[in-house]
């Protein structure tokens, strides 16, 4: 059974930082493209960042220079370091695993507010 379990969300003030984690099980993690998506209220889910099996990364323009995606294949975990957070980063953040199939986590809420 495939599971993607996100953690690390919460409430943070503008300018603050959070680190999201996504622990995977039930997949050959090393071979999957891992991604983070987010969905704000009333908006479509959008790609935040992804990292390929060999470590190539891609970011949405809105987070470039502020967010960093990384992976630890030994721990089967992907991370999203989020710095200089803005209120517009408020959303539910979802972990995604993609190769031949696509899997989603249940999401973790990130709220940026003073």
Topology:
Layout lengths: L2 E5 L2 E3 L5 E8 L7 E7 L6 E6 L5 E3 L7 E6 L4 E6 L8 E8 L3 E3 L3 E5 L2
Parallel strand pairs: 2-11
Antiparallel strand pairs: 1-3, 3-8, 4-5, 4-9, 5-6, 7-8, 9-10, 9-11
Distance between the termini: 40 Å
Q: Averaging pLDDT over every residue, what do you get?
A: 97
Computed CA radius of gyration, to the nearest angstrom = 13 Å
The arrangement of helices and strands along the chain is EEEEEEEEEEE
Rough shape? globular
Q: Structural class of the helix and strand makeup?
A: mainly beta
**Count of helical regions:** 0
Helix content: under 10%
Give your account of this protein's structure.
The chain is an all-beta fold. It has no helices and eleven strands. The protein has strands spanning 3-7, 10-12, 18-25, 33-39, 46-51, 57-59, 67-72, 77-82, 91-98, 102-104, 108-112. The strands form two sheets. Strands 2, 4, 5, 6, 9, 10 and 11 form a seven-stranded mixed sheet that branches. A four-stranded antiparallel sheet has the order 1-3-8-7, with no helix packed on it. 31% of the residues are buried.
Could you give a quick summary of the protein structure above?
The chain has 114 residues and is mainly β. The protein contains no helices and 11 strands.
Defining traits:
114 residues; 7-stranded mixed sheet
């Amino acid at each position: 059974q495939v599971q993607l379990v996100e953690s690390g969300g919460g409430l943070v003030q503008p300018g603050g930082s959070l680190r999201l984690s996504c622990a995977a099980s039930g997949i050959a993690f090393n071979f999957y493209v891992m991604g983070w998506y987010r969905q704000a209220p009333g908006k479509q889910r959008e790609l935040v960042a992804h990292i390929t099996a060999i470590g190539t990364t891609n970011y949405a323009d809105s987070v470039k220079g502020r967010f960093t995606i990384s992976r630890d294949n030994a721990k089967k975990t992907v991370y999203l370091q989020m710095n200089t957070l803005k209120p517009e980063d408020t959303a539910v953040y979802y972990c995604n695993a993609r190769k031949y199939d696509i899997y989603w986590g249940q999401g973790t809420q990130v709220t940026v507010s003073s």
